[in-house]
Amino acid sequence: MDVPPLIGVSTYLEDEVSWGVWTMPAALLPAGYPGLVQAAGGLAALLPPDAPERAATAVARLDGLVIAGGPDVEPVRYGAERDPRTGPPARARDAWELALIDAALALGTPLLGICRGMQLLNVALGGTLVQHLDGHTGATGVFGSHLVKPVPGSRYAAVVPEESAVPAYHHQCVADLGRGLAVSAQADDGTVEAIEPAGEQWVLGVQWHPEMGEDTRVMRGLVEAAAAWGGRRTG
């Protein structure tokens, strides 16, 4: 790739963050996300929450999009009542990231959803979520690891063809699949670990956190698709 594709990554917006002598609101993202984009050959651009109506303009300037992990999706987004174990809502982030996903799907932009990002992709297409499950984290604040098995013939299997151990930290997962989505990987306990739609557009959601591991193949798949997509747009 002569010119690295520009990959937008959604971020957190926190009310109170401390660094040096300062404590103030901040847009932030764990460094593993841009680091993984860079390791896979892309150029990372961080996307703080913004007005949803500006999402299409933002996505139109990108070659690829990553919806990062983070807080639980508000259950009202998929027509459910809140389970007591579901975390507090992040309404501005939900609205912004759903608008980003809608824009990427409409424009044909390559898209990767990570953990919360996969769940939002499912919700954006009318799917629902399991609000709590056990066994997919380590200790509090510590990533666990479990095996993920690809579905033969899927987009995910094309980039990671073998069963592999992945870093994971989640207590929610896909329940009913959204429109046009298929399962492309599962855990040993049957938990849906990756989803993707049919068609030519490169779109993939993974339940685990590739930015916390050494395997760059999932992100490299996005970056390579983004390079081809960017070339088509500008060629």
Automatic annotation (TrEMBL):
<protein>
    <submittedName>
        <fullName>Gamma-glutamyl-gamma-aminobutyrate hydrolase family protein</fullName>
    </submittedName>
</protein>
<dbReference type="GO" id="GO:0005829">
    <property type="term" value="C:cytosol"/>
</dbReference>
<dbReference type="InterPro" id="IPR011697">
    <property type="entry name" value="Peptidase_C26"/>
</dbReference>
<dbReference type="InterPro" id="IPR029062">
    <property type="entry name" value="Class_I_gatase-like"/>
</dbReference>
<keyword id="KW-0378">Hydrolase</keyword>
<dbReference type="InterPro" id="IPR044668">
    <property type="entry name" value="PuuD-like"/>
</dbReference>
<dbReference type="Pfam" id="PF07722">
    <property type="entry name" value="Peptidase_C26"/>
</dbReference>
<dbReference type="GO" id="GO:0033969">
    <property type="term" value="F:gamma-glutamyl-gamma-aminobutyrate hydrolase activity"/>
</dbReference>
<dbReference type="GO" id="GO:0006598">
    <property type="term" value="P:polyamine catabolic process"/>
</dbReference>
